[in-house]
Each structure stands twice: as structure tokens, then as C-alpha cells.
Amino acid sequence: MYKDYYNDVEKLYEIIRNSNEKSDEVFQICKKNNELFGKFFIEFLDFFKVKLDDILYKFRKNNCIELIEKNIIISVLNSLIEDLLNVSGRTLIAEINIKREENLLIGETSKSRYNFFNELLLNDKYKIELLKKYPVLAYLIYTKIFNKLEVISELLERLVRDYAIIKSELNMDFKVIQNINFSSGDTHNGGKSVLIIVTDKGKIVYKPHSLSPEKMFGEIIDFINKKETLKIKVNKIRTIDFNGYGWQEFAEYKSCKNLTEVCNYFYKIGVELAIFHMLGCDDLHYENLIACGENPVFIDLETLLKNNSSDTLYSENLTTVFNQNINDSVLGTMLLPLNVKGSVFDYDMGGISSYGDQKSNFWKSYVIENAGTDEIRLNKKSINIGDSYNKVMLNEEVMEPIDFNQDIHNGFFDCYRLILDNKTDLIKFINLIKNVEVRQVLRATAVYARFLEAATHPSYLTDFKEREMLLSKIRVLNQETTENLKNKNLYEIDALMDNDIPYFTTYLWTNDLVCNNKVKIRNYYNSTLSEILLDRVQSLSEINLKKQLYYIRMSLATTVKDIWKKESLKENSNITYFKNKKSYIECAKELGDLFCETAIWSKDKNTCTWLTQIIAKEDKFELGPLNYSLYEGGGVILFLNTLAKETGESKYSKVSMAGMKGIEEIYLQHSTNQLQPSLFQGIGSLIYIYYSIYSLNDDKDAYSKYIKYLKELSEYDIDKTALDVISGVSGLIIVLLNIYSKEKSELLLTTCDKLGKVLYESLLEDNLNHFTGLSHGYAGFSWALILLGKYVNNNNYLELGKKLIEIENEKFNKDKLNWKDIRTEDKNVDHVLWCHGASGIALSRANLLNCLDDKDTIKIQRDLELAIKKLTSEGFTDELDHSICHGIFGNIDILLKLSQILNDRMLLEQAYKEADKALKYIRTKGIKCGMKKSFDISTFMIGLSGIGYVLLRLHNPRYASVLSLEVLNAEVL
């Protein structure tokens, strides 16, 4: 085995010994790369150019196509020196540093010492000695040289042979080849990669692999277009497929001319997304899409179909099933924005994602620093993901996909509906497709690339066995034990030894695996691609259509920046709910049914989760499994559990309890981190949810978990923490005291007192300088302190609470009859919401009516009257969204609670009047959830489940008001 390697190594030594005069092209290229050891490459490039001249001479002699040889030579030489630097750079850097440390470099300056070393590389004897120290490097250099010569020779032979067909099929009557450009993509099967042929009539793309998947996709496009049901026909790229290679027209990046073209583009994206979802294609990232005017062009479909039938599901846990659900959905195509919690990619690779420069802190690459000096070194730095050609432009402005969600929705819906209506014809059509060879990516290309990067370290270039031992570690990444998998590993290592990315293919109607275009592993797959595809077509359904449209909306919402920033809300007329529902309970059940339909179940059906939008640190959404936060995922469980109690329907009970088990498995089972002391975002969420489940169902297991987390909280050593109702201790104190009023547990009271001390002391340290309002401000702090002062008989708490109310009232704006929002200097801001402004302040003051003496209660009543007046007059405008945190349904819930506290029939009547008005709006104009440019978010405080919970309270007001931080009294149900 190693003898063959060394045979090529000896041939490289001969090339060095027999090097001739240097050509001008070689001299100029090496001079350009002088600071990157340019003189090391002179003999290799010179030898290569002599061979390349021979190839070009033969081509020129035997056909009539003109070559601009100088351009081609320079282009190919530049590509070769880049290849050679990639494999040799680390070794040369190591060698110069060794000589510097041993004081073997001559020169007064760092640059002169580098020049001394660079000149040394011109010495044939030294160069051969160096390569004998690193024989693997010598082999790789030799391989790179001859692979590239073979690639050029093969290209030109095929170009001559296919000339007439290319002119006809691609409609390009070219006579001159002006240049040949190598792509920067991976190499396979002997250094082969995509080439761009620049002619006098335009560019042609040459691909050294089968283009039968592209042809198949084009045939499916023809099938879809011929049905004449789409609003706009979808284009296809001209493609010529031969056995093992092919030609394509070049897709030129172009801006749209007008808004109609932009809408057409995104409609076609929706259409093609439906097709790719049907096919199970999974590689449509941003580098594989070109925005060509009103036409999206997919430039790499070699992985059009994926065969996973050989995979063994080593784990059947819920996380694995959740990830598989993503892979099988529209998100798995990679065409949509990809911002998924826990993903190995910390940047958005989605095909239609339109970000500017992105930066990856996880994926890093080597950058050469201090070039041209004897301190030259490699430093691993974060990758900057630059602009690409997938962005849709109009008048030099990027068109954001989320602003054209209706077009994407319509395109996807129309095409999916077409497929459903023509399923039988489509299956017959697929059965007629033959001879399609599809690449199978058995491991992420990034994994292979990391192995190749590691294998260029000098330690692995001294001995072929050492290199092979390193690359063999790829076997242990998976538990691959079958004979077929072991053989596949051998062919992976074989390709990696030659510095190629392994290349595997299979055919549509066979279950064999072809490895590196050389050998075939029989019966590698359990099913054929055709069987998998036909199963996918059969599985398409109305329920799946609804689910995929939902996923599309969730994905698009992750592209919005500054999601808390308020702006005029756009009507989502394609996202209407409650069309045929009249009663509140029917509407709540519709939302419950949505959760039943979209639940992702474990294999044993004991646990489930949902794909949800989770608020990320950068004020953006990311997608992930339902979390335990009461603000987000935990509230979903509360809604479903309450719905199950009210309806008595087992499906809601089953999905809610399985959902809670899913949260435990994914987030709690193996967590060792201390949870945040917060009601809506931390350990308080679990205390509240488990206690609510216990109260609703007399569930003793839930009660024991409530006790577990309460004890955990009581043992916290809290110094500095958030103080507010949502993120901090204020909300915890209020809820725990409300539980105490039922449980009379000393542990609850001592825990509250401990939290109260933190709140009290921290507020004094901050000089009482905070926001107004309930969720993050004075109204929440004062509520917690006064309620706690009452329970533990602490006058300091009571006095500070009253002081905070006085400070908050100093911020009252008499012109607007509302409390100022001091987060902003904008004097026009006038919030009437649970979280900020009059609504939340009304709720806080109402809950303090029975906590103070008569004198202070009079002041509280005055505030309450002002706040209720503002709430009833301005708390239900169309400018507000429908969320419960900062929207109409939150204000409806507050009216329900205020009517109960104050025994006010008029407030109750207005709550139902405003609810009916809001439901009418949702039926006709669509739902508006609580974030900028958001769609139908599923979570609690800003989304559907919160709205559903308020609908349940409208149906039965005896359920606890979460906004009022109360807990359920099971005795009144």
C-alpha cells in the first residue's frame, strides 16, 4: 500500500531535480505569493505549466475552438498554487519557526530572515531534504499537480466532443474559450470540482458528476407547469447530462426590476419549496441559490434525494425524534431561514436568508498572520460569512423574505394542493423516471473538512501510517458495526488520504452504494430512493400541509431583529382562526387541536414536544423544543391542562401531560445548572405549573415536584438577581404568597421572606431608580413588598412598598391620564398594557386594596379609578396586538379580574364585548401575536396558548388569572 505512495514521492523528487527555466507566468505568480513561501512552489508550477502547454497544444491542433491560452494558464496556475499552499502552508510555517528558534536564519530584521528562508526553498537539495522529512506532503503535492492536469485534459476532450450539443441545448454559439475558472468548492474523485468556462458568448458550467438529479427536477417542474394551476410557471435551468458529467447554463445574479418581480420570485420559492419538501431534499443552503431576477435558480441539486434507510436510530429519545421531525419538514430542505436552538451552526445557512455579513464563533478557520516575516504563523479565527448571491434586490435594497410571506405561503399552498390533487398521476410519472444517480452525503462535509484540516499538520505529513491512523478515527464517530458500514469507512479513508472529500452515490431504483466512482457496496440500503420518494408522496396530506405552512411562518419569524421593538402591525389575512367557531370554548378547543396536530411524539408515545419560537438573547427568535418557561412553553402546558379540565376530553389531557414529560426529558432530566429565581423565566415557572397541575387534577406526583422545586429555591444563596415580576423575585414572592394562602406552609413563608430581603435591600442600593409599570417596575415591586409585609408583619416592607407607589405616581402624566414610560424619551409613548402602563398598574393596585389601612387604601382607589378609565377607553384599539403580555387579550383578562375584585358588572360586560370584537377581527383580518412582524406564535404570554387560556377564563372565569399572579382554587371549580 505504502509502496505506491512512495513511488509518486520519488517522482516528485525527480521533478525538482529536473526543473527547467522558469516561465514568466510562473515567475509572476510566485512573486505575487512571495510572502507566502512563493519560491517553494516554482519547480512544481513550472513542471505543471510545461504539461499544461502540451494539453493546450493538442487541443489547439485538433479543433477549431480558439483558446485565450494566457488567461487560461494564469487562472489554472493560480488555482494550483492555492491548492499547494493549503496542503504545505502549516509545514513551511513550522519549519521557519524551528529555524528561527534555533537561530539558523540569517538577517537583521524579521523580514530579512524570512527572505533568507524563502531563498533557501529555491535550493533543490534543501527542498528534497525537507520533503523527505515530510513524504506525505510530497505525495499530496504530486497528486495535486497530476489531478489538475487530468481535470483540464478531460474537460477539453469533453468540450470538443460535446461542442455541437452544447451549442444547441444551451443556445450558445461560442467560438472562443476566454478562460477556465476553478470553483472554490470541495474536490472529489481525484481532485475534480466544478469549473466555469468563460466563452465569447457567456459562461458555461461544467460539473464532473452526473447531472441526472437536475434533469429529474426539471422534469418534475415540467409536470407541475403543465397542470396549468399555478399562478406563475416556474423556470428550470438548461442542463445536459452525460454519463458521469454534464453541462449547465450559467445563472447570472440579477436584481428585480419591480415589485411584481419580487412577488413572483417569492411565489416561485414557495412552489419549489413544496417540491423539495416532497422529494426530501436537504442541501438548499444560501450558497446553492442564485437570485436571478424574478427566478430562483438552484445551482447544485446533486443531493436531490436522500436515502437514510441504512441508518440505525441509536437513540429513540425525544430530542432525536424532534431533530428527525425538523429534518423531515420544510425546514430540513435548508431553503428556509435556519435559526435552531442547539444547532452546530451558529449562523443562518438558510437558502433565502438575507442577512449581511454573519460571523461564526463556533466554526473557525486558519488565517495566516505576519506573512513575509520569520514570525509568520497560523491563527484560528471566527469565520465571516460574507454576502452571497441569494439575496433578492430591488433598487439596490435587499428584499426581506418575511415581507413577502404571503407570496411564499401562496406558492407553497398552490403547489402542495396541486400535488395532492394529482397524486396518482405524479406516482405514475415518477415510476417512469430511470437512470438517476444521486449523491449521498453520509457525513456532514464539515466533518470531513475538519479531518483534512487536522491531517495537514506536520505531525501527520511525516508518515503515511500516522496520517491513516488519524483519518481512521472517523470510524468511531458512529457505532458502525455492520460489514457494509465498515467497508464504507475504508472508502472514506481512501478518499481522505488523497485530500479529497469522499463521494458516494446511489441510483433511484437500486439499494447499492457507489463509492468514489470506483466500487459498489451491494445492498447497502434497506430501501431504494424510489421507494422512499413514493412513500413521501403518499404521506402528503391536508394536516401535513397545515403543519408545514405553520413551520414556514415560524422560520420566517426568526429573521426579524429587535423583536421587542414596536411598529405598526401588519394584517396577516392568511392566518385566520375561529372561522366557524362562535363560543369561547370552541375557539379554545381549536387552539388545543392545533397543539394536538403539531405535537412531536416519542416512539413510545409517552412524551411529546413542539417546535416553538423561543426568545433568544439577541432579541431574536430561534426555533427549539417547547421549554418550561411560563412566559413561553410552560404556559402552553398550563393552557392544555386547563382545557382538558374544562372539556373533559382525554386528548388534551394526554398531550398536556406528555408535553410536561417532554419538558422534563429535554430540559430538566440532566440539567445541573441552578435555575433563575424568576416566576416567568426560571424555577418559579416549574413551581407554578406543577402546583397548577396538582390543583387541576389532584395529581400527587405533580405536587411532589412542586415541593422539590420549592425546596430547591429555598436553598438558593441569592445575592444579586433580577427584581421584577417577569425576570426576578417580585413575581415569585407574589405567587408563593398566593400559594401560602391555601397551603399555610412555613417553607413558603420563609422562602418569601428570604426573597423579600433581597428585593428590599437591592431596591435601596439602586436608590429606587426604576421603571414604571407592573412587569419591570414600581407597580410590581410595591405589590410584592406590601403583600409580603402584610404576611410577615414587616413594616419596612410595607413602608418601602408605599414609597414606591408614591414615586411611580410622580411619573403620572395628567395630559395623557397615564403613567409615563421612562424607558424612552418619546413623549408620545402611551402604553395601556399588562406589562407597561395603566392596565398592569390597575391590576397591581386592585390586588393591594385589602393590604393597607384606610388612609392608604383611598390613595390606591384613586390610582385604580384613573387606571381603569384609561384601560376601558384606550386598552382595545386596533393598533394593539392580541397577546396577553402587551395586547388586547391581556387587557380582557385584566377586566375579568378587576370585575371580580371590585364586583363591577360593567367591567365584566366590557370584557365580553371586547373579546367578541377581537374574535371578529381575527376571523376576518388574522391574528396578531405579540412580537414585531410575528405570525401565530404558539407560546403563552405573546402567543396562541395565552389567548386560548383567556378564552377559557371567558368561558369559566373561576380559573386562575396568570396575569394577576393567582393560583387555582380547585374547590371553586
TrEMBL record:
- GO BP annotations listed: carbohydrate metabolic process; peptide modification
The record, for CDD domains, names:
LanM-like
Residues annotated as signal peptide? none
Write out the residues that bind Zn(2+): C835, C885, H886
Which GO cellular component terms, listed alphabetically, does the Swiss-Prot or TrEMBL entry include?
plasma membrane
Any one GO MF term held by the record is: metal ion binding
What keywords is this UniProt entry annotated with? Metal-binding, Zinc
User: Is Zinc set as a keyword in this record?
Assistant: yes
What are the Lantibiotic biosynthesis protein dehydration domain coordinates in residue numbering? 134-506
Q: Tell me which Pfam families the record gives.
A: DUF4135, LANC_like
Q: What is this protein called?
A: Type 2 lantibiotic biosynthesis protein LanM
Where does this protein come from, organism-wise?
Answer: Clostridium frigidicarnis
